[in-house]
Amino acid sequence: MTRPIHVLNGPNLNRLGLREPHIYGHTTLAEIETLCMDAAGDRPLVFRQTNSERQMIDWIHEAIDESCALLINPAAFTFYSMAVMDALKMYPFPMIEYHISNIHKREPMYHTSLVSGVATVVMAGAGARGYGHAVRLLCEMVADPAWPGRSL
């Protein structure tokens, strides 16, 4: 059986489309899920969102056991959750940290990610469409074990 790509979304992303549209746009999380499913093609994809740090850690553990790649938008967990970072350190497959906005153009509190140091790839600022690009990249990485940077 083909292992799925897991897409995990952190706190407040369930409010996309309504929340600060000048930063995050008008695309809803349901629309982002559709973008991800389309980008995955025939590969199975698990798409989730939580406002709970505990739930996020449980889902990361599940991804360690069941997935082939991980796309994570940790949202606020990015900047303070050592527990999420520690769980992600155990993830043995390609992982992309994704942010809808360019966190480096925002207030200084958003500039330091605890996740970036454990992710295979970091992407930020491409809006909702960036999710689709990230899923396609993960599909390429999974298909090509020699992909440059895969094991960094």
Automatic annotation (TrEMBL):
<comment type="pathway">
    <text>Metabolic intermediate biosynthesis; chorismate biosynthesis; chorismate from D-erythrose 4-phosphate and phosphoenolpyruvate: step 3/7.</text>
</comment>
<comment type="subunit">
    <text>Homododecamer.</text>
</comment>
<feature type="binding site">
    <location>
        <position position="73"/>
    </location>
    <ligand>
        <name>substrate</name>
    </ligand>
</feature>
<dbReference type="InterPro" id="IPR036441">
    <property type="entry name" value="DHquinase_II_sf"/>
</dbReference>
<comment type="similarity">
    <text>Belongs to the type-II 3-dehydroquinase family.</text>
</comment>
<dbReference type="Pfam" id="PF01220">
    <property type="entry name" value="DHquinase_II"/>
</dbReference>
<dbReference type="InterPro" id="IPR001874">
    <property type="entry name" value="DHquinase_II"/>
</dbReference>
<protein>
    <recommendedName>
        <fullName>3-dehydroquinate dehydratase</fullName>
        <ecNumber>4.2.1.10</ecNumber>
    </recommendedName>
</protein>
<feature type="active site" description="Proton acceptor">
    <location>
        <position position="24"/>
    </location>
</feature>
<feature type="binding site">
    <location>
        <position position="86"/>
    </location>
    <ligand>
        <name>substrate</name>
    </ligand>
</feature>
<dbReference type="InterPro" id="IPR018509">
    <property type="entry name" value="DHquinase_II_CS"/>
</dbReference>
<feature type="active site" description="Proton donor">
    <location>
        <position position="99"/>
    </location>
</feature>
<keyword id="KW-0057">Aromatic amino acid biosynthesis</keyword>
<comment type="function">
    <text>Catalyzes a trans-dehydration via an enolate intermediate.</text>
</comment>
<feature type="binding site">
    <location>
        <begin position="100"/>
        <end position="101"/>
    </location>
    <ligand>
        <name>substrate</name>
    </ligand>
</feature>
<keyword id="KW-0028">Amino-acid biosynthesis</keyword>
<dbReference type="GO" id="GO:0003855">
    <property type="term" value="F:3-dehydroquinate dehydratase activity"/>
</dbReference>
<feature type="site" description="Transition state stabilizer">
    <location>
        <position position="19"/>
    </location>
</feature>
<keyword id="KW-0456">Lyase</keyword>
